[in-house]
Amino acid sequence: MALGITDYIVFGLMLMISSSIGIYYRFTGGKQKTTQEYMLGNKNQSAIPVAFSLMASFMSAISLFGLSAENYSRGTQFAVINIGYLIGTPIIAYIFLPVFFKLGNLSVYEYLEKRFGSWTRITTSLAFSLQMILYMAIVLYAPALALEAVTGLSQDTSILLVGLVCVFYSTIGGIKAVIITDLFQAILMFASIYAVIGVAIYETGGVSEIWEIARKYDRIEFTNFNIDPTERHSFFSLVLGGMFTYVSLYAINQTQVQRYLTMKDYRTAVKSLWLSVPILSLLSLSTCLSGLAIYSKYYNCDPIKAGRISKEDQLMTLYVLDTMGNIPGLTGLFVAGIFSSGLSSVSPVLNSLAAVTMEDYIKPLTRTEISDKKKVYSMKLLVILYGSICILLAFLAKYFGSILQTSLTIFGVVGGPVLAVFTLGVLVPYVNQKGSMMGLITGLIFSFVLGFGGPKPPTKNLPTYTNSCLVLNNTFSSINGSSLFINKEPEDGYLYLYRISYMYYIVLGFAATLLVGMIVSAIFRDPNNFIEPELFAPFVAKQLRKRGMFFKQDSVKMELRPTEIASNNHQVN
Predict the structure, then answer these.
(1) pTM (2 decimals)?
(2) pLDDT of residue 558
(3) Which domains occur in the chain, in start order?
């Protein structure tokens, strides 16, 4: 089956609207001629559009395909991760965000130079760039799976189509275009998910019937309290790992911090963060439900074992073809929603990578004042460059495993150590650059070995059946089934380190970095390193201001000059 004329019209309208938003912001207002407008939207953006943009930045096609496939194949336990999001929000709002908003630096990593030194800033910034480039490659690949199945276009052509549209409006429209396009695309994402759920309700007779089928075949599970760290998904791994992942993405990631800084003051930024939480959880839980909706159709004829598709990440696309293919416009709406999820994730990352490259690499190396006009021009070229790199890497993403697990692994192995460095910065006054650098390097090495080293046990799926299948693609099943689709029990002989759940990667990387950083700083104290209270979380800064002095790393007190006291009495608005 392929898209009909109505579907192409719906899909084409989505691409045209996304591109038109970029064109509109290019030729209105200040016409994106200043860094303040191009990268920070003149610091006058509204809370609601930014809240949707915060959600859309990391709820991509990876989430839509990956979450639905996760619930189809392994049950609903993953939905517990939303508790971690809720726990992490006040940590972001009241520990990290006040510091970054008060400093107001375009690059969040500039904070690390002020707190520790230039080496910590550059190393952390490079780690972020690597993380986001790898992530974007998977984000571009995920929608290509849908377009290939629905239209017959090759994955390579699909990747190019998504990538080029995204680079176009991100380049010309700046952060304003990215935020407004994210709002539009978030609405399409919700529409796609609810189209899937709505069709399943119509076919089965209601949500209760969908739930009953899932319950009967053991898909309903929320109370796996197994404390064994080798358990792939348990209540503890999802809440703890989910909280750390959420904080690493929403507290110290350039993509999100740059959005906070587009608003006029700290209170508005916090408001947008809290508004984004229910939006994020609603889309997350709805996508989980869509996995059960898909299962309600295929519970007795698994399309993977039947040889109809090659990856579980294609389940949602197949469902749309089987149920909506004859309804004009619905398939087009689904494809538009999936593409929107990819566009809304790639565009802000391109924007943030350009900002980081300008602020952390180009400006320090040139050591000369760059005019605002040249900065904007250079950052537009950087958006094009990073977009091209990510398109090229997306062609390799087909060789990865589950797109959901792969993306969370990438977030974990880099996000844990980087979050730990920022945590040491805002909470622990005595930690210095030697400690932060040694902790960061140790944590990154450990995390990469944990995440990408050694063979790992195959993922255990719940049983699936082919009892009601009319036709089986036996050739396909015999070639691929044994290695990819038949449920396997984890085998003995795997190193314990590589059996640990991927949800703990970020926790262990964080802990290793934090521990090493504190020990090394305690051993190699720097008597010349003065600590400014404004670089700390509010409750830490309050204690430092109460004493009215800076602290040397050897704990020798030094009285502040009157001008310094006045400067450090500045409060977050």
Answers:
(1) 0.85
(2) 36
(3) 5-27+50-524 (1.20.1730.10), 527-573 (no CATH)
